[in-house]
Amino acid sequence: MTQPLIYVKNWFTTDHAILFRLSNNLVQVNFQDKTELIVCCKSMLMIYMNELGERSVYPLNAAMDSENNEMTKKLICTKEVLRSMLKPKRNDGTGE
């Protein structure tokens, strides 16, 4: 049995990172400092890789309560970018 091909549905760049939204509903964010955040909505998990390549897995509903301040800052930033990415575009001449 063949697996469906996973592809990038959307991508977005900021001054500090590039965010990929994949067809399997994963969101991967690669930061300039070589850290990485992967959010899996289906399993409600988040994976954080620090600059040393060490990975940590958090339940999505508890990730914001982590004592890893650097990770929580990046998660907040990711959330804001995702909101703007998923926000429906208005086509009423207002430019929003």
How would you describe what is shown here?
Pfam families: POLO_box (PF00659). By secondary structure, this protein is an alpha+beta fold. It contains one helix and six strands; from the N terminus they run ββββββα. It has one helix at 69-86, and strands at 8-13, 17-22, 26-31, 36-40, 45-49, 55-59. The protein has a six-stranded antiparallel β-sheet with strand order 1-2-3-4-5-6, with helices on one face. The protein is globular, with a radius of gyration of 15 Å.
Key terms:
single chain, 96 residues, alpha+beta, 6-stranded antiparallel beta sheet, 19% helix, globular
Layout of helices and strands:
Elements: E1 8-13, E2 17-22, E3 26-31, E4 36-40, E5 45-49, E6 55-59, H1 69-86
Mean pLDDT: 87
* Share of helical residues: 10-25%
- What would you call the shape? globular
Q: How far apart lie the N and C ends? A: 44 Å
**What's the assembly state of these chains?**
single chain
Structure annotation, total helices: 1
The tally of strands reads 6
> Which stretches are poorly predicted, pLDDT < 50 over at least 5 residues?
none
- How would a crystallographer describe the biggest sheet? 6 strands, antiparallel
| Share in β-strands | 25-35%
Sheet/helix structural class: alpha+beta
Please write the string of helix (H) and strand (E) elements.
EEEEEEH
Return Rg in Å. 15 Å
Q: What is the topology, as strand order, of the major beta sheet? A: 1-2-3-4-5-6
Protein name: POLO box domain-containing protein
Pfam families: POLO_box
Domain POLO box: 7-87
